[in-house]
C-alpha cells in the first residue's frame, strides 16, 4: 500500500463532497483522510484527499475524478515538493501530580494548551501526521479522554499556485 | 438582449424547443404538473405519454440510439423519478445521450420527507454523467443548455435535471442563449498528432493486427471512416455487441462479434493477434473473458474519447484520447503517407483467418423437439426486413441470436442493452426508435421474460400510432438463465419456467394480451408459417404487431466462452472445442 496526497480544486456546488466521496467508494478506492475548505478564489473549494493504493490505479483515480463535471483540477502533491499538515485537538487527563509532565510534552512538541480544568487539559497541535502520532504516544500514559483530528491539508512549496490557470 | 417574462416551467419547455428537441417521452405527476401545462401548448415538442416511466427512459434511449440525437424523458418526483433509474443506468453503461427531467417537491420542502419526495440527484449520482438540482427558476435555461451539452458531447451519457416545483412556478426574465458555465468540463476530441503517428508506425510493423471496434464508433458516427481505414489496411475487423452495424457484416474482412458468444474467428483472431487496434471499445469482461489470458501476445492501440477507459482494464501501448471519427481520419492520412514507403502485409494472417472462417462459420442445429428453432425465426426476420430496418432486442438468448444471425449493414440499426443487460429494453426502445425514424421498419425482438417487463408500452404505441413489430421468441422460460442451469447447474431449473408456451397453462396468453392492447397479434408454431407472419407484420402499419413465436426451449447460444475463463477455451458447440492445427 502506498499513500498519495491529492489536491482537488472543485466548484463549490451542492453535492460535490458526495460526488467525490461516492466515486471513491464506487470504484473501490480507499480514502485515508479528506479535508475540504474554501480557497482564495470565490466559488472554488479545495479538497485534500489522502488515498492509499496498491500500485497501479492512481491514474485511474485521477482520471475518474477528472470526469466529475464539478472537478476543476487535480494534482498529486509529492512528499519532497509539498507540505502537509494535520490539526489535532486532544483532551488529556491530568491532576496536580501529572500536569507538569503533560505541559513539558506540550512545550517539546510546540503544541498549545487551550483549556485547563482541575482534572484535564485540552491541547492543540499542528504538524505532519508522524508528529501528531508521536505526540499521541507521549500523551497516552496520562490517559487520553477525547481526541479529534482533521484530515491532512497540503500545499506545494515554491511560488506556483495550483489555482493560477484554472479560472480566468 | 431581449427578455420575456416566463415561468420556470415555460422556460424549461422553451429551452428544449430552442435546443432542437422535438420529442419527449413522459408521464406527469404532482411535482412536474407546472411543466406539463405549457407542454400542452407547444407546437414544436411532441410529448408521448407512456404507461410506466421506465418505458419513457428506454424510449428516449431508443430514440437516441436510432437517430444519434439526444433522447429526452420526463417524470414526476419520488416514484416517478425512481422508475427512471433503470433506464438511466442503462444509458450510462451504453453511453446513450439522454436528458432525464424530473419534478421535485417545493424547494422549502426538500429534506422533510414530503409526499413523493426522493433524493433523485443523490440516487442517480453514480449512474449519470452529471446531474443538477434546480431550485431557482432563473437557472433553468442555463442548466438545460448545460445538460444538453454534457449529454451529447465527449463520451455521451445521461444527465438528470431535477426541478423543484416552486422553481417551475416562479416567474423571471427569460433570455436565450444562456451562459453555459462548465469550467470543469472539457472533453478532448482532437488527439495528439504524435500518438496517431506512433499508432500508424505500430500498425505497419504488425503482422497480425485486428480492428477491435466498439460502440464508440457508432456514437461518434465514424463508420465511413472505419470502412476506409479497414480497406486501406486490409485488416480484419471485429465488432462488439455495442458496435454491430458499425462495419458491414457482408464485408469479407468482417470476422463477426467477439466475446462470450462471439464467432470462433473473431474470438480466436483477438487471442492470436499481435496488435489490437481498439476503437471506442472498453475491454468489457464479456469480450475479454479472463483478462490475464486475453490476447496475450498483442500490443494495444487504444482510441477512446474517455481518458478513463484507457488503461482501465488493459494497458495501452499507444493511448489516444479523442473522438473516433477525428482519430480515424487522422490515422488514415498518416497511414497513407507512411504506406508510401512501408506496405502492410497481412497475407499469412489472412490465410489463418480465412481457414477459421471456413471451418467455424456461425450456425445452429435444429432441435429435434418439433418446435421452431429460435435462430431460424430471427434469421428470417433479418433477411426479410433487410438492412434498412431497425432491430431492438431485449436481453438474453434472443439478444445474442439477434446479434449473431441478423446481418447488420449500417450503424444505428441494432439497439440493445449491452452494458447493463436490462431485460425489458426492447419494446420501449423500439417505440422510441420508431418515433425517431418513422419511415423505417422497426422490430422489437423480445423474449417471453423480457416482454412481460415492459409490454404495457404497446398501449402507448397503439394510441400514438407507433406501429412497431414485436417478435416474441417464446421458449416459455428465462432462456439464458436456463442455458446456464443446463451447463453449469446440472440441469436443475430453479425458477426459470415462465409457463407462457403452448404446452403450459399459458399465463399470459401473449396473443390475447396484445389484442387487448389494440395490436394485430398472431401465434406461429410451424416453420412454414414463419415467413408469412413476418410479411404480414411488415405490411401492417395501422397498429403495432405482435407475433408469438413458440420456439424450443433447449436451443442454446453457441459459440460460448464460459464466464471467467480464457477465451482460448471457446466452445463451438456443446463439448466441441475448435480443433487447432499444430502450426500455431
Ordered list of secondary-structure elements with their pairings:
The complex is a heterodimer of chains A (168) and B (584).
Chain A: E1 2-11, H1 16-26, E2 30-38, E3 44-53, H2 58-67, E4 71-77, E5 82-93, H3 99-108, E6 112-117, E7 120-127, H4 129-139, E8 144-149, E9 153-156
Chain B: E1 4-7, H1 8-18, E2 23-26, H2 33-41, E3 46-49, H3 53-67, E4 71-75, H4 79-82, H5 85-93, E5 98-104, H6 120-124, E6 130-134, H7 140-152, E7 158-164, H8 165-169, E8 171-174, H9 193-205, E9 209-213, H10 215-219, H11 223-233, E10 237-239, H12 264-272, E11 275-279, H13 285-288, E12 299-304, E13 318-321, H14 324-338, H15 347-359, H16 374-385, E14 390-393, H17 397-405, E15 414-415, H18 426-436, E16 442-447, H19 448-454, H20 457-463, E17 469-474, H21 479-488, H22 510-516, E18 520-524, H23 527-539, E19 545-550
Parallel strand pairs in B: 2-3, 2-4, 4-5, 5-7, 6-7, 9-10, 9-11, 11-12, 12-13, 14-15, 14-16, 16-17, 17-19, 18-19
Antiparallel strand pairs in B: 1-8
Helix pairs in contact in B: 1-2, 1-7, 3-5, 3-18, 9-14, 11-14, 12-15, 16-17, 16-23
What do you see in this structure?
The complex is a heterodimer of chains A (168) and B (584). The longest helix of chain A is centred in the N-terminal third of the chain and has 11 residues, at 16-26. Chain A folds into two domains: 2-77, ACT domain (Alpha-Beta Plaits, 2-Layer Sandwich); 83-153, ACT-like. Chain A, domain 2 (Alpha-Beta Plaits). Helices cover 25% and strands 43% of the residues of chain A. By secondary structure, chain A is of the alpha+beta class. The N and C termini of chain A lie far apart (38 Å). In chain A, the strands form two sheets. In chain A, strands 5, 6, 7, 8 and 9 form a five-stranded antiparallel β-sheet that branches. Chain A is built from four helices and nine strands; from the N terminus they run E-H-E-E-H-E-E-H-E-E-H-E-E. With 584 residues, chain B is an alpha/beta fold. Chain B folds into three domains: 4-174, 3-Layer(aba) Sandwich (Rossmann fold); 193-359, TPP-binding domain (Rossmann fold, 3-Layer(aba) Sandwich), CATH 3.40.50; 374-550, Rossmann fold. Helix content of chain B is 37%, strand content 16%. Chain B has a six-stranded parallel β-sheet with strand order 3-2-4-5-7-6, with helices on both faces. In chain B, strand 14 (390-393), helix 17 (397-405) and strand 15 (414-415) form a beta-alpha-beta unit. The longest helix of chain B has 15 residues, at 53-67. Chain A binds chain B through residues 10-11, 14-15, 18-19, 22-23, 26, 59-60, 63-64, 66-72, 166-167, and chain B through 121-122, 125-126, 129-130, 133, 150, 182-185, 306-308, 311-312.
Amino acid at each position: 500500500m502506498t499513500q498519495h496526497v491529492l489536491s482537488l480544486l472543485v466548484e463549490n456546488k451542492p453535492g460535490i463532497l458526495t460526488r467525490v466521496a461516492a466515486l471513491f467508494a464506487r470504484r473501490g478506492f480507499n480514502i485515508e483522510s479528506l479535508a475540504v475548505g474554501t480557497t482564495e478564489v470565490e466559488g472554488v473549494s479545495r479538497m485534500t484527499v489522502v488515498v492509499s493504493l496498491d500500485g497501479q490505479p492512481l491514474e485511474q483515480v485521477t482520471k475518474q475524478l477528472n470526469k466529475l463535471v464539478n472537478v476543476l483540477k487535480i494534482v498529486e502533491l509529492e512528499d519532497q515538493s509539498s507540505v502537509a499538515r494535520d490539526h489535532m485537538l486532544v483532551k488529556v487527563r491530568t491532576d496536580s501530580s501529572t500536569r507538569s509532565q503533560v505541559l513539558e510534552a506540550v512545550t517539546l512538541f510546540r503544541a498549545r494548551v487551550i483549556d485547563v480544568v482541575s482534572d484535564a487539559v485540552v491541547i492543540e497541535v499542528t504538524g505532519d501526521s508522524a508528529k501528531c502520532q508521536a505526540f499521541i504516544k507521549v500523551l497516552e500514559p496520562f490517559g487520553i479522554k477525547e481526541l479529534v483530528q482533521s484530515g491532512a491539508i497540503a500545499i506545494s512549496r515554491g511560488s506556483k499556485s495550483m489555482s493560477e490557470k484554472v479560472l480566468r | 438582449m431581449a427578455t420575456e417574462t416566463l415561468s420556470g416551467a415555460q422556460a424549461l419547455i422553451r429551452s428544449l424547443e430552442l435546443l432542437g428537441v422535438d420529442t419527449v417521452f413522459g408521464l406527469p405527476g404532482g411535482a412536474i404538473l407546472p411543466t406539463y401545462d405549457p407542454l400542452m401548448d407547444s407546437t414544436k415538442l411532441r410529448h408521448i405519454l407512456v404507461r410506466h416511466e421506465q418505458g419513457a427512459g428506454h424510449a428516449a434511449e431508443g430514440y437516441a440510439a436510432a437517430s444519434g440525437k439526444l433522447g429526452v424523458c420526463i417524470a414526476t418526483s419520488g416514484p416517478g423519478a425512481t422508475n427512471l433509474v433503470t433506464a438511466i443506468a442503462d444509458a450510462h453503461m451504453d453511453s446513450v445521450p439522454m436528458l432525464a427531467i424530473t419534478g421535485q417537491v417545493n424547494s422549502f420542502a426538500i429534506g422533510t420527507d414530503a409526499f413523493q419526495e426522493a433524493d433523485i440527484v443523490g440516487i442517480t449520482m453514480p449512474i449519470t454523467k452529471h446531474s443538477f438540482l434546480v431550485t431557482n427558476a432563473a437557472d433553468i435555461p442555463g442548466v438545460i443548455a448545460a445538460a444538453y451539452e454534457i449529454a451529447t458531447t465527449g463520451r455521451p451519457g445521461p444527465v438528470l435535471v431535477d426541478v423543484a416545483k416552486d422553481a417551475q412556478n416562479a416567474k423571471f426574465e427569460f433570455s436565450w442563449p444562456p451562459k453555459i458555465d462548465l469550467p470543469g468540463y472539457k472533453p478532448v476530441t482532437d488527439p495528439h498528432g504524435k500518438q496517431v503517428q506512433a499508432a500508424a508506425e505500430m500498425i505497419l510493423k504488425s503482422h497480425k493486427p485486428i480492428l477491435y471496434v466498439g460502440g464508440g464508433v457508432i456514437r461518434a458516427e465514424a463508420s465511413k471512416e472505419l470502412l476506409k481505414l479497414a480497406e486501406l489496411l486490409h485488416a480484419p475487423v471485429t465488432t462488439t455487441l455495442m458496435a454491430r452495424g458499425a462495419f458491414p457484416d457482408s464485408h469479407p474482412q468482417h470476422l463477426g462479434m467477439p466475446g462470450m458468444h462471439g464467432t470462433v474467428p473473431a474470438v480466436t483472431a483477438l487471442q492470436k493477434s499481435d496488435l489490437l487496434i481498439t476503437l471506442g471499445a472498453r475491454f468489457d469482461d464479456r469480450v475479454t473473458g479472463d483478462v490475464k489470458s486475453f490476447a496475450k501476445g498483442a500490443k494495444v492501440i487504444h482510441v477512446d474519447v474517455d481518458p478513463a477507459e484507457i488503461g482501465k482494464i488493459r494497458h495501452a501501448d499507444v493511448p489516444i484520447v479523442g473522438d473516433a471519427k477525428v482519430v480515424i481520419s487522422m490515422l488514415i492520412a498518416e497511414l497513407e503517407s507512411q504506406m508510401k514507403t512501408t506496405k502492410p502485409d497481412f497475407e499469412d494472417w489472412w490465410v489463418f483467418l480465412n481457414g477459421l472462417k471456413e471451418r467455424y462459420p456461425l450456425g445452429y442445429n435444429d432441435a429435434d423437439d418439433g418446435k421452431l428453432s429460435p435462430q431460424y425465426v430471427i434469421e428470417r426476420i433479418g433477411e426479410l426486413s433487410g438492412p434498412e430496418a431497425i432491430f431492438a432486442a431485449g436481453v438474453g438468448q434472443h439478444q445474442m441470436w439477434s446479434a449473431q444471425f441478423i446481418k447488420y449493414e449500417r450503424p444505428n440499426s441494432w439497439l440493445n442493452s449491452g452494458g447493463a443487460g436490462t431485460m425489458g429494453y426492447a419494446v420501449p426502445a423500439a417505440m422510441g426508435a420508431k418515433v425517431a425514424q418513422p419511415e423505417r421498419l422497426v422490430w422489437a425482438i423480445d423474449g417471453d421474460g423480457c416482454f412481460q417487463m415492459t409490454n404495457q408500452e404497446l398501449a402507448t404505441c397503439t394510441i400514438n400510432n407507433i406501429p412497431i413489430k414485436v417478435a416474441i421468441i417464446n421458449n416459455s422460460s428465462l432462456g439464458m438463465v436456463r442455458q446456464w442451469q443446463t451447463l453449469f447447474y446440472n440441469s436443475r431449473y430453479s425458477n426459470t419456467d415462465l409457463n407462457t408456451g403452448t404446452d403450459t397453462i399459458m399465463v399470459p396468453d401473449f396473443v390475447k394480451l396484445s389484442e387487448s392492447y389494440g395490436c394485430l397479434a398472431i401465434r406461429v408454431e410451424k416453420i412454414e408459417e414463419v415467413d408469412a407472419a413476418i410479411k404480414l407484420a411488415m405490411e401492417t402499419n395501422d397498429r403495432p404487431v405482435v407475433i408469438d413465436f413458440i420456439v424450443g426451449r433447449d436451443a442454446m447460444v453457441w459459440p460460448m466462452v464460459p464466464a471467467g475463463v480464457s477465451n482460448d477455451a471457446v466452445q463451438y458447440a456443446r463439448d466441441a472445442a475448435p480443433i487447432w492445427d499444430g502450426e500455431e
